[in-house]
Amino acid sequence: MSRKQGTSKSTRRMSSRRSVKRTATRRGATAPSRPTALRRSARKAVILGSGKHTYEVVEGWGKLPARIKLGYTHGVQIDSAQRVIIHNQSRDSVIIFDHDGKFIKSWGPEFASGAHGCQLSRENGAEYLYLSDYVRHVVVKTTLDGEIVWTLGYPKETNIYKSEEEFKPTNVAVAPNGDFYVADGYGLSWIHQYNARAEYIRSWGGKGSAPGQLDCPHGVWVDTRGETPLVIVADRSNQRLQIFTLDGQHLGFASEGLRRPCHFDQAGDELLVPDLHGVVTILNRENKPVVHLGDNRGVWEEKGWPNLPRKNWSPDKFISPHAACWDAQGDAYVVEWVAEGRVTKLRRVS
Which of 13, 20, 23, 137 maximizes the CB count within 10 A of its CB? Predict the structure, then answer.
């Protein structure tokens, strides 16, 4: 090989290396976006529960327009179209999303201060909301578009209350026959029963810890898992559930695995129980816990709870679950007692 030939080949190799280097440099100018995308796609799913009660946290679910801000998120329900209805303390107190979290509409500025319980009821082919407002001391029945059907104040006929200010309803349950039950959770701790025409029937409870007495009956539900419907009450400050007949006769308690039970939803033989002290629990037909979701034991002892800094939020841990419900696919939605609102969707995995 002549020197001239060797020099020519060497020059071509050097030129080739310089070309590769320049190409790599040009590619490198846009390279930072690729590792970021890869990291996002490879991000490990957040899984809660186990066995047939396994859920994946759907992070970022529920996008709101810039003009709307959540307040304390107190209630959640699912309508027949699988839309998700949130009751929160803001001028947009009732917010409706589709199943995928797309904002549809909002209404209800009159509930801005006292928005609390939100119970959907299907009656004669139509759907209604029973909304509890503990600041205005009323329960309001509305259509899903916010049209008021009736407004119910405190039950004067009971002679329990000196004034309406003592009546602070937190949730409502509706029975198969149309009767409904109002839980005076933040007031004097009574359950009030009405018929489908909103006519008063009876009351039971009163503050205390003895059987049949209540201390913050925060949630109420008509349990249809057995042959005969029963009324089940989240007796929150007594850290238990109480079970009653439909006419208020005390039957028993359930307390295993519960801290501060808030409310209920039902699917098949199971109850979904949001617990203010950092957990959501699923109970079986015997009201025994089968799984705890997002357990954040001791969170209620943290300074500033429930309004913890965002940096202290974790997708696998709840802070203060206040209401929860299942949709037709078995996905669960949890709303929390947090000043800026917190809504979590849990997609059923198994």
Answer: 137
Would the pLDDT of 90 be above 50? yes
| Alpha-carbon distances, residue 320 vs 53, 114, 250, 279 (angstroms) | 21, 18, 29, 7
Q: Is residue 17 one of the residues assigned to a domain?
A: no
Percent pLDDT > 90 in the chain is: 87
In a domain, 121, yes or no: yes
Taking the CB of residue 157, how many other CB atoms lie within 10 A of it? 9
Q: Tell me: pLDDT of 15 over 50.
A: no
> pLDDT at position 3, please?
38
28-44 pLDDT, tens digit each: 444 444 444 444 445 78
How many separate domains does the chain show? 1
- As a whole number of angstroms, the distance between CA 337 and CA 305 comes to 10
- 15 assigned to some structural domain: no
Whether 131 and 142 have beta carbons less than 8 Å apart is answered as: yes
298 — alpha (psi -120 to 50), left (phi > 0) or beta? Answer: left
